[in-house]
Structures are given as structure tokens and as C-alpha cells.
Amino acid sequence: MERTKSILVATDFSECSKAALHAAAQWAERLGASLDLIHVWSIPSFPLPPAFTGDPRANQLLVDQPRQLAETGLKRFVEAASNAGIFVRNALLELGDPAVTISQTAEREGYDMIVVGTHGRSGLSRFMLGSVAEKVVRLAKQPVLSVGKLPARSIEAA
């Protein structure tokens, strides 16, 4: 069995992602592995009003604004990790479908393990929203650790 050298932690900036980061940091410390973050953003998919369809500036705004929000969120997440004593080697920002992009990035970059937070949805909300964590487990070629929420006092540090 090969040694785990690199761990990729997927984040959507939620409390579940904070729990996943803390779990991944513990694994990384025990295994002597590096820890990287990935956030996958997407362009909102909704019909544009007719006035926007011909204006390239409006279309560009629909791309720029979500990307800037994602960049800001990732920067804050990395800062919170650092404040909690967690060293993040790289923070990746990717555009695409979260589960597919996380899995493909992990394989392409040679990560040994993926850690994802799970919101623990069930019933109709799970059916309607799907589960990124579940899709990553199905798609990934490397081991995936799925982490649920931690108690509130454990999360506040991140």
C-alpha cells in the first residue's frame, strides 16, 4: 500500500466544509501529507431577459461576479484555516460541475485522497439537490472521506 502524500479537500464554504477541513487536517498531520483545497464554482443557469442577450458586457458580468465571489470565499476560507493552525499548500478555484471537476482534478493532479463535507440531506431535498459528496464517491478513483457536521464549538475555530 502506498503512503498518502497529498489530500484534496473540497469546499463550498459551508459548516460541513469546515468539518471536512478539520478532519483532513488531522489525517494530513498523522500521515505527513500535504493539504490542498478546491472550490468549484459555476455560472448561474437561468434565462436572461431579452435586453441582456445582445449585450456582451452584461453577459461578462454574469461570469465575472460569481467568479469574484468564489475567489473571495476561497481566500476567506484559507485565512480561517490558517487562523485555526491549518496549513493549506494550494487553494484551487475551478469552473464546472462540482463532483466531476473535483474527481477529475484529483486524478489529473495525482492526489491520494479526497475529503468532502456532506450536508446530510435526505428525502426530497436530496433527490432535488443531489449529493456532491455521493457523486464524488462514485466518480473518484482514489479514497474519499465524507465528513458530516461537527459540534458547533469545534467549527468556530475555522
Describe the structure.
The structure is a single chain. This protein has one domain: HUPs (Rossmann fold), CATH 3.40.50.620. The radius of gyration is 17 Å and the shape is globular. It is an alpha/beta fold and 158 residues long. Helices cover 51% and strands 18% of the residues. It has a five-stranded parallel sheet, sandwiched between helices.
List the defining traits of the structure above.
Rossmann fold, 158 residues, 18% strand, 7 helices, globular, alpha/beta, disordered C terminus
Layout: helices, strands, pairs:
Elements: E1 6-10, H1 15-31, E2 34-41, H2 50-53, H3 56-83, E3 90-95, H4 98-109, E4 113-117, H5 123-129, H6 132-139, E5 144-147, H7 152-155
Parallel strand pairs: 1-2, 1-4, 2-3, 4-5
Spatial gap, N to C terminus: 32 Å
CATH class: Alpha Beta
The total count of helices amounts to 7
How many discrete domains? 1
Strand content: 15-25%
Sheet of most strands? 5 strands, parallel
**Mean pLDDT over the residues:** 84
Class by helix and strand content?
alpha/beta
Strand order across the largest sheet? 3-2-1-4-5
